[in-house]
Automatic annotation (TrEMBL):
Coiled coil: none annotated. It comes from Streptomyces vietnamensis. InterPro entries: DUF7144. Keywords: Membrane, Transmembrane, Transmembrane helix. The keyword Transmembrane applies. This is Membrane protein. Residues 22-133 form the DUF7144 domain. The chain crosses the membrane at residues 20-44, 64-84, 91-107, 113-131. It comes from the Bacteria. The keyword Zinc does not apply.
Amino acid sequence: MNATHTAPASSAKYAWAGGLRMFAAVMLFLAGLLGIFRGIMAIAEDEVFVTTRNYVFQFDLTGWGWVHLGLGIVAVLVSFGLFAAAAWARYTGIGIAALVIIANFLSLPYYPWWSVIVIVMSGFIIWALCVDRGEDVVGRPTDGRLP
């Protein structure tokens, strides 16, 4: 009788973690897609961006555009790996989300509100990928490891 009570709680725990992986995959896909659009806007030198004087990390707007475009493309590709529950995508997703945070922090004066939104979004991605233990609903590892 005890086994029937512990199994659903254990399954619910792993289902919750798997749900977080899907959440992270969707959020990383959206962050990547928005990074691609932001990169294209910056490369085209759209009037949406603000130019700030005397900023320590001041770079050319086109340069920031290429950085955001590259990170966005990699983030979208990694999100496909997360949808497939690949272990490499989990670790790479954490790294890409961290790089997205750094890039948005450094380009904060150019598009402040959006940079803050993407930083928070990337923080949730890192949190979701760190909570997920990489196991399926039954508790078996999804990356081919033996239990």
